[in-house]
Every structure is written in C-alpha cells, then in structure tokens.
UniProtKB/TrEMBL annotation:
Entry keyword Methyltransferase: yes
Catalytic activity: Hydrolysis of alkylated DNA, releasing 3-methyladenine, 3-methylguanine, 7-methylguanine and 7-methyladenine
EC number: 3.2.2.21
Record organism: Amycolatopsis decaplanina DSM 44594
All residue ranges annotated as the HTH araC/xylS-type domain in the record: 87-185
Keyword vocabulary terms for this entry: Activator, DNA damage, DNA repair, DNA-binding, Metal-binding, Methyltransferase, Transcription, Transcription regulation, Transferase, Zinc
Cofactor(s) demanded: Zn(2+)
Record keyword Transmembrane present: no
Gene Ontology CC: one annotated term: cytoplasm
Protein name, as recorded: DNA-3-methyladenine glycosylase II
Pfam families named in the record: Ada_Zn_binding, AlkA_N, HTH_18
PANTHER family, per database record: DNA-3-METHYLADENINE GLYCOSYLASE (PTHR43003), DNA-3-METHYLADENINE GLYCOSYLASE 2 (PTHR43003:SF13)
C-alpha cells in the first residue's frame, strides 16, 4: 500500500487509525516518521514519503515520532492473512527467531537460502531481517525503559542487544533520546514485582471481545488457563523459561500483565499474545467482505469486529484438538487436565490458580498409553501426532507452511477434516480455515435455510475469511464460547 501515494496521503490527512501498521509516513523536513493516525498537524504532501515498515524508515535515517509512537502500532494484517515466504518470515521474526537463531536460522526454518530470504523480505518491506529484528529490539527496549526500574545494562541484555553501546546508539537513533532521557519522560512507573510488566496491546477497532475471551475460557485447561478478576490468564512456554500472562479487554487496547522468568522473552511473549487474540487483524476489511453476504450480513452488523481465537503454541492446540475429538468440551478439558498434571512443567503463580505449563511434544512422548482414558483409536491418533511432532516433520509454529502442514496432518491416522481445519484455524492461523462438518456450524447453516450441498456452495462466497464466518455462525447458538465470562 505504501506505493499508492494518493491513498496514503488521504489516510494521513484523515488521521485514519485503520491504516496504522499498513504503512509509515516519513516527513522529509523533520526527518521523523509517524503512523497514519498521528495527532499532529499533517505535513504537506510534498514533504511526505511512505515506507512499508518502521525498520525501513529507520534504515533511511528517520526517527520515531514521540507523539504517536509508530513503533508500537498494530502489526500489518498481511502477515497473518498470507502464507507466502515473506509473511512466514515476518511471523518468525516477530516470534524472536532472528534474535535467537540469526538470519541463517530463519532461512533454515523457511527452507530457503539466506540470500533468497534477504532478497524477498527487502523487496517487500524495504529492510532486511536484521533491520526488522533491530526495530523490534528497539521497541522492546523502550517498553522495558518506561515500564520497569531495571538498570540500563539489564534492559540492553533483556532486549537482545549484544552490547550496551549498541543499545545506547540504537535508542538514540530510533527515538532521538538517550535511554536515560526516555525514562525521564515517564513520570511514575507502576510498582510491580521483579519480572512483571504492565503493558497495553493496541488493536484496530472495532473489536468484539465476547466470543474471543468466551471461547478461550470455556475451553480452557484447568491449571493452564483461568478467568480471574475480569482477565483471561494462562501460562506460556517461552525460549528462556515459563511465564504467566493476564489479558483483559479494555477500550482501545488489551491490558496485558506479564510475569516472565527471563526478560529476554518479552518480545516473543507479546507476539504470541497478539497472535492468540488475533490483534493484528483488519476487522474493517473482514466485516465489509462478510457483510456483503445476505445471510451473514445481519450477524456481522450485530457484532462487528469478531476475531478468531488462536493459540500461543501450535503443538499444544493440536494435542488438544485430538483430545476433543467426538467428546464434549467438558470431557476434552478433563483429558487435557490429566495430561497436564502428569507431564506438564510446574509453575509458581502467587496471583492466581495456575499450576503448570502445558507439556511439550518431548514430554508427551513419555505417555503410557494405558494411562489414557480414551478409545484405542484415539490413543493411536494422539501418539501418532506426538511422534510426528518430535520427528520434526510437522511444523505448526508461526512460520509454518499452511498447505504442507495440512498435508502432513491428513496423512496421520485419525485425522479427518474437522481436526485438520480446527488446527489450521487455531494453530496455523489460516483466516480461510473452515469447519463445515462442525455440529455448531451445521446447526447454524440449517437455521439460515441452507442444506449441506447448498451450504458448501454458498460458503465459497466467504473466502478468504471463512474462519471469521465460522465465529459468526457459532454465535447463533447458546454456548459459553459466545459470552464474555462474568468478572
């Protein structure tokens, strides 16, 4: 979009927040870059130029605006809508892969050479993977500077900088302030326990939180997830240790309270929480497409801004999807809770009732099949999935190839369309994943006057947003997944 000059100028002059993250406005006279909705008086069009990413603007020598904080704007919805190389790379960069494994590790995960990844990413984003990761480190550093009392040395290390000098230079270059000056702008930092941060996760309006949080809570695994004091809380498995997060819907943002074992995991934790709640979606584009349908139109008008509840761990949800085959929600939660108690990693949660991190595939490889209270066929399905995850042939992470993952899942015993598409929707994040065989979806379709054959044909009109259409169809039923839990 950044190449459509006239459209970008109109968005900036209208201060249209829908385009935050789609492009960044750089002002040639001040050498500052902003988000589209920056509250200052818009510059003259002849003084504007546009970049596809904050990293590209920084690489061109522009500094982040102190008013609108463009580095903290919602991410481009393209990276969650697409499954091509650049979109997969951007999801992995947000997940911290470049910081932990380097560009070579990123390329290896994508199955391409470093040169190919560099070329494709730079062509579309205006900056290479290292610059994009650097911009993310700068944003992490600012959060730590403004929300904690950590020493600047600790902030530099936690944000992923290799040296304090690099940290100081980057902060000055990106924000036109030294780290000390940046902290001095914050009058009072909230008092929190060590390792705990209170953050705001922005999103594009509108957002309808009922099904988003209702689904997560209604299907939550005891000990891993809970609803407490108006917030959805859960444990996270992160590269440097476990964490606990509390997410609360607020006006214009999601309140996020993170308790980390290691502050180096901050940017990864934020990325996974945003992915869980689908916060980088473009609800206006989704709603406009679905509202044009005569059957879905009234449902969209009644609840604009529905998101698709996703997951913080693709492997975890795949295991839970198998446990939920042909059983009730309550039974699926019971099966999952037993696995957690037997194989999960214990955590300390003084603020609530969370007890474990959901076991990873390596821990689940130690399962005794006789300890599973389920039919033999489902035991084989679960053990087959765990073996495939441990062999490395099945990637359900942020940078996965959606089509390849579907093919690998279909090849496993016991994996039918419902299980595969559920995983595609929640683990892979495919916005077009569809569940025509789901009981709730079939009941909703019948209520709309569509028989099985007519439904399949009609649903083609909802591409590429069928995962969002499913949320609207589920909402026609009376189920806790459709309601925001009581505070």
């Amino acid at each position: 979009m950044h190449e459509d000059f006239e459209r970008c100028v109109r968005a900036v002059q209208a201060k249209d927040g829908r385009f935050d993250g789609w492009f960044f406005t750089a002002v040639l006279t001040t050498r500052i870059y902003c988000r589209a909705s920056c509250p200052v008086v818009p510059p003259k069009p002849e003084n504007m130029t546009f970049y596809p990413s904050a990293a590209a603007a920084q690489e061109a020598g522009f500094r982040a605006c102190k008013r609108c904080r463009p580095d903290a704007s919602p991410g481009s919805p393209q990276w969650n809508e697409r499954a091509d190389l650049v979109a997969r790379a951007m999801r992995l960069i947000a997940d911290g892969v470049v910081d932990t494994e380097g560009v070579s590790g990123l390329a290896a995960r994508l199955g391409y050479s470093v040169r190919q990844v560099e070329r494709h990413v730079r062509a579309e984003l205006g900056a290479g993977p290292l610059s994009l990761a650097r911009a993310q480190r700068a944003q992490t550093a600012r959060l730590l500077i403004e929300t904690t009392g950590l020493s600047m040395i600790d902030v530099a290390l936690a944000a992923g900088f290799g040296s304090v000098r690099t940290f100081n230079d980057t902060v000055r270059e990106v924000f036109a302030l030294s780290p000390t000056e940046l902290r001095a702008r914050v009058h009072t930092a909230p008092a929190t326990a060590p390792g705990t941060l209170n953050l705001r996760l922005p999103y594009r309006k509108p957002l309808f939180p009922d099904n988003l949080f209702g689904h997560l809570v209604a299907t939550g695994v005891p000990g891993v997830e809970e609803w407490r004091d108006g917030a959805y809380r859960r444990t996270l498995r992160l590269p440097h240790g476990p964490a606990v997060v509390a997410l609360k819907p607020e006006d214009g943002h999601i309140g996020c309270r993170l308790t980390l074992s290691d502050l180096r995991d901050l940017s990864t934790a934020i990325s996974r929480c945003r992915r869980l709640l689908d916060l980088d979606a473009d609800p206006v584009a989704v709603d406009e497409a679905l509202a044009a349908d005569r059957l879905l139109g009234p449902l969209v008008a009644a609840a604009p801004g529905r998101r698709v509840p996703r997951t913080v761990d693709g492997d975890e949800f795949a295991v839970r999807a198998v446990l939920g085959q042909q059983v009730s929600t309550a039974a699926a939660r019971t099966h999952a809770a037993r696995l957690v108690l037997a194989h999960g990693e214990p955590v300390d949660d003084p603020d609530g009732g969370l007890t474990h991190v959901f076991p990873d595939a390596l821990a689940l490889a130690e399962i005794d099949p006789e300890s599973l209270a389920m039919p033999q066929s489902r035991k084989r399905t679960l053990l087959g999935l765990v073996a495939e995850l441990n062999d490395g042939g099945l990637d359900l992470g942020a940078g996965s190839d959606w089509q390849r993952a579907r093919e690998r899942l279909h090849a496993l015993p016991g994996f039918g369309p419902w299980t595969v598409e559920s995983i595609a929707m929640r683990s892979l994040g495919d916005p077009d994943a569809f569940l025509p065989t789901d009981l709730g979806v079939k009941v909703a379709a019948k209520g709309l006057g569509l028989g099985p054959a007519a439904f399949a044909a009609h649903a083609e009109r909802w591409r590429p947003w069928r995962a969002y259409a499913v949320q609207h169809l589920w909402a026609t039923g009376d189920h806790p997944i459709n309601r925001l839990p009581a505070a």
